[in-house]
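Researcher: Good morning. I'm working through a list of sequences from a screen, and I'd like to move beyond sequence-only analysis. For each chain I'm collecting a predicted structure so we can compare shapes side by side. This is the next one on the list. No need for commentary yet; just the structure.
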Amino acid sequence: MKNLLETFSGLLDPVMLGPMLFSWGGKLAAAILIVVAGRWVARTVMSWIKKAISKAKVDSTLVQFLSSIAYVALMVVVVISALGVLGVPTTPFLAVIGAAGLAVGLALRDSLANFAAGVMLVLFRPFKVGDFVDTAGISGSVESISIFNTVLKTPDNLVITVPNGLIYADTITNYSAEEKRRINLVIGISYNDDIGKAKALIQGVLMQENRLLEEPPAAVFLLELGESSVNFGVQPWVRTADYWSVRGDLLESIKSAIEQNGLSMPYPQRDLHVVDHIQTGT
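Model: Good morning. Structure tokens for this chain:
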């Protein structure tokens, strides 16, 4: 008890108390300065990140999310630095943060993969809302693009939510990326039909279709000599929005023109020859 009182009295000694308070006061002031300055730096960096990403025309949700992550990360560094100035051991804090980060990463690895894919989709923009795409085995119009998934609406009006990780890992075909598309048709006629007449009929149908583009010009050429028919390749260009309607109308018009002018569009067929072979023996 006596030793305890002597120790306490020694701490209250003005000769020892002054330097101690001065030392703690300086450390506390330095820690407060670090927090204040660090908070200002974190906010400034967050503002820079927002401006930089916004110039790239990135989704506003992603801008807010990334800037918030940057701010939190910087403030963690600031707080740990301030604790270090005060003499608090920071190694345990770093170990806890590292372990927590590892645990969260393992628990949310699929979500983090979808998030990373969402960031890449927003940054590189292989498609945008309203485009018709084929990806992850699904064809449909893009309804929305979020951080973790993308919503597609199929032609039969089904709404499908696809994880971004599946989309970014697969091939993406964007049918709406260009203003014009080429229609690829294969038109077959009989081997007994006149090739020149058939080609002229097809070209006549194309000339009557005013929705076709003049540039690039439409192409009609002999594609192949098939098993059951002589096949022409027909490749006109149209506006992307007119693709399906023009394609269907051309097929109908070409078939009608060929049949009305004495030609035919044969279906697949084979000639079967039966050989009567009789074996005789003794």
